[in-house]
């Protein structure tokens, strides 16, 4: 078992990573002394893992569950309302605990519901996708989508703990493993060159769920994210770099219709576009861009966009949370392992988008 701490003073919390954690969630949350436990999950994860978590929590406090519909298209206010209804039905109070059992969608919805129930209660993340284990369960970004864009509603609300049971990845479809690898490649590009080398070198092992390779990158990515979040919890500065590839990715997700592209797929393609942009700005070399494209492709992720509308994409990016006064700001790579945030001339952005497969 690996334990990493997200250092946030009195709100610091552990990320525990290892096999077989699900059956021990009860003993791990006991120290939080919850009055009630409400497990939030979805229709896919419930038949696989809900019973194990319920059983382990039963001796700690009365347990109930909320089972949401599955999919990015359900990451909406309606789902938050469903969780709040579940809290009412359970008689939850300010000392109750939400356990988010599932991928990033369940985690983001549950965290947001936890942040607004009685003005904020505690929640614990039990991520069951690779993407959630390496990224979404850590850092306290919570929220839902609006038709106008990704994650437009939400707040920062840190979990009390993250328990990533790596055995749950065994039931995850290959497409979802690739999606998780999208965020891992992002971390490789943001971290140091050695981490990127490791991700690149072990891509085959990662895709075939080699335990040692997975354990190493889950810990590597969590360490990187934890250190960025500890330095800049609410994205005043350096945390924005975790958005590498996301200005493009979020536009792809929205324009294709939420749920058509997986988040990690859109991020993977967004990384290639961000690399292309960085080359046009004079930072990366042609060889860097080819290398990044090859790694994204080796992860099983798309590197081009079949025909999305250019003007609608640019419009969508103007609504990104990093944009101010209509100016779109991108995370660019100065080199592999070094990122920055900057405004980009419209002409260069258009060249990159056309190269990436957007249509005028
Ligand atoms: N809060 C953050 O910091 C942050 C970071 C990255 C992504 N996100 C958000 O996370 C979401 C993407 O998360 P995701 O990739 O986990 O998608 P997801 O939550 O939709 O899960 C992917 C699919 O896998 C299924 N599933 C989950 N665990 C399973 C398991 N062990 N076995 C079999 N099936 C399983 C789910 O039911 C779903 O169908 C997006 O909404 C994205 O915006 C948030
Ligand atoms: O934790 C962060 O900060 C991130 O940006 C991580 C991203 O992978 C994640 O997709 C996040 O939800 C995007 O945040 P947003 O603020 O652009 O909605
Ligand atoms: Zn992301």
Short summary of the structure?
Helices cover 46% and strands 19% of the residues. The chain has helices at 25-29, 46-57, 77-90, 104-116, 130-136, 174-190, 193-201, 203-207, 211-231, 246-256, 263-280, 286-298, 310-318, 346-356, and strands at 2-6, 13-18, 37-42, 63-68, 97-102, 122-127, 141-146, 149-156, 161-165, 329-335, 338-343. The chain has a 7-stranded mixed sheet with strand order 1-2-9-6-5-3-4, sandwiched between helices.
How would you explain this protein's 3D organization?
It is an enzyme of class 4 (lyase). It catalyses: 7-phospho-2-dehydro-3-deoxy-D-arabino-heptonate = 3-dehydroquinate + phosphate. Pathway: Metabolic intermediate biosynthesis; chorismate biosynthesis; chorismate from D-erythrose 4-phosphate and phosphoenolpyruvate: step 2/7. InterPro entries: Dehydroquinate_synthase, DHQ_synth_AroB, DHQ_synth_fam, DHQS/DOIS_N, DHQS_C. With 360 residues, the chain is an alpha/beta fold. Helices cover 46% and strands 19% of the residues. It contains 14 helices and eleven strands. The chain is globular, with a radius of gyration of 20 Å. Helix 6 (174-190) runs parallel beside helix 11 (263-280). Strands 1-2-9-6-5-3-4 form a seven-stranded mixed sheet, with helices on both faces. A two-stranded antiparallel ribbon has the order 7-8. The structure holds nicotinamide-adenine-dinucleotide (NAD), the ligand O=C(O)C(=O)C[C@@H](O)[C@H](O)[C@H](O)COP(=O)(O)O and zinc ion. Nicotinamide-adenine-dinucleotide (NAD) binds next to helix 4, helix 5, helix 6 and helix 11.
């Amino acid at each position: 078992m690996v334990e990493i701490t997200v250092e946030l003073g009195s709100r610091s919390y552990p990320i525990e990573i290892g096999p077989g954690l699900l059956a021990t969630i009860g003993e791990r949350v006991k120290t939080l002394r919850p009055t009630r436990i409400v497990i939030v999950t979805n229709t896919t994860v419930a038949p696989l893992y809900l019973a194990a978590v319920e059983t382990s929590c039963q001796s700690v406090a009365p347990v109930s569950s909320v089972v949401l519909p599955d999919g990015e298209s359900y990451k909406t206010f309606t789902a938050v309302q469903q969780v709040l209804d579940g809290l009412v039905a359970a008689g939850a109070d300010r000392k109750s605990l939400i356990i988010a059992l599932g991928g990033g969608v369940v985690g983001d919805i549950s965290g947001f519901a936890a942040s607004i129930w009685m003005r904020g209660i505690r929640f614990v993340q039990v991520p069951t996708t690779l993407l959630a284990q390496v990224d979404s369960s850590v850092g306290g970004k919570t929220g839902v989508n609006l038709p106008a864009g990704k994650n437009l509603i939400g707040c920062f609300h840190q979990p009390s703990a993250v328990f990533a049971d790596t055995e749950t990845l065994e039931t995850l479809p290959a497409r979802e493993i690739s999606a998780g690898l999208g965020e891992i490649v992002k971390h490789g590009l943001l971290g140091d060159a050695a981490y990127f080398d490791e991700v690149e070198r072990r891509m085959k092992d990662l895709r075939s769920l080699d335990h040692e390779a997975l354990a190493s990158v889950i810990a590597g990515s969590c360490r990187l994210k934890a250190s960025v979040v500890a330095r800049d919890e609410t994205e005043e500065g350096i945390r924005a770099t975790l958005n590498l590839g996301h200005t493009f990715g979020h536009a792809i997700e929205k324009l294709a219709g939420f749920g058509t592209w997986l988040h990690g797929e859109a991020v993977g393609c967004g990384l290639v576009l961000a690399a292309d942009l960085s080359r046009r700005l004079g930072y990366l070399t042609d060889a860097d861009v080819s290398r990044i494209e090859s790694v994204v492709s080796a992860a099983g992720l798309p590197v081009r966009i079949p025909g999305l509308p250019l003007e609608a994409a640019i419009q969508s990016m103007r609504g990104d949370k990093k944009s101010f006064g209509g100016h779109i700001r991108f995370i660019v790579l100065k080199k592999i392992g070094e990122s920055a945030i900057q405004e980009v001339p419209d002409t260069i952005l258009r060249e990159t988008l056309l190269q990436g497969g957007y249509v005028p």
